[in-house]
Amino acid sequence: MNNHTPSASEGDTAQRSAQLCKDPHKVSQQRKGRTMTIIITKTKLALGILAMVLVGATVVAASDGVFTDNPSGTYYHDPVEWAYENGITTGTSATTFSPMDPVTRGQNVTFAYRYDQNIVQPALEDIEENVATLASDVSNAPRVYFARVDSDGTVEKSNGITVEKGVDGAFSATLPESAANCAVETSLYTSQSDVLSQVVLNLAYSSQAWVWASHAESGDADTVDVFTRYVLGDTVTAIDLPFVVTAYCSDPFIVIDPGFIFPPIWDLLDE
Q1: I need a surface site. Which of 126, 143, 172, 245 has the fewest CB within 10 A?
Q2: CA 172 – CA 223 distance, rounded (Å)
Q3: How many Cβ atoms are within 10 Å of 171's Cβ, its own excluded?
Q4: Which of 213, 193, 190 is nearest to 203 (CA)?
């Protein structure tokens, strides 16, 4: 037989146990009143937030804490926070930093942060103004066409201009748009394949060789006539010579020639 006499504390415990067995509702209420310490790991926290989102609860964003200059949502926030916690946020100065040299993780974080803080975004109205100016410049830029022509009228190279040979020393150059919109330039050209004309041009050092263009006598709006001449003393001879013809075309009556600007015709009439 057990002759053990329960102590006062044991008696109290036994009495409370018996009482709780009689009133289970009281057990539940006492449990609710207890203070519990729960250790939450990052995994548990993430799962908890996910559960809150799924059930429609409100999630309050964590504050930035000590990072008053390192706001949440920026691409460098997490690495800066990690580097700060690990004591490696100090990097070299901008004057000694060499981009091609190996750097520490802390230096990477530091310079990423500095870069983000020094980005200066232009004002929206400045961007719009620059875009409008660029669009205007593009629309008003001259359209350039050219043709490089041998003495027999063969076009060696061309961008938009076709050429037909007429009588000696006369050619017809057709532009892709009205010649009235264009300033036309011509110059003699030493052809690599036209030996005869090259000899003539060599002789021109002691004489003169000319080339010029004018609006076509036929009256075609998109055609100009090109003439080549050889001058020796007082004698001017129509002779076929290789040449380059270039047209700088813009809006009607506002023709841009290299180095010159032709104003609208109505401006001239007002003077």
Answers
A1: 126
A2: 7
A3: 25
A4: 190
Q: Would the pTM count as exceeding 0.90?
A: no
Per the CB < 8 A criterion, the answer to whether 206 and 265 are in contact is no
Q: Could you tell me if 211 and 227 are in contact, meaning their C-beta atoms sit under 8 angstroms apart?
A: yes
Domain-wise residue ranges, the chain: 77-117, 142-270
The residue written with tokens 């990690």 in the block is 82
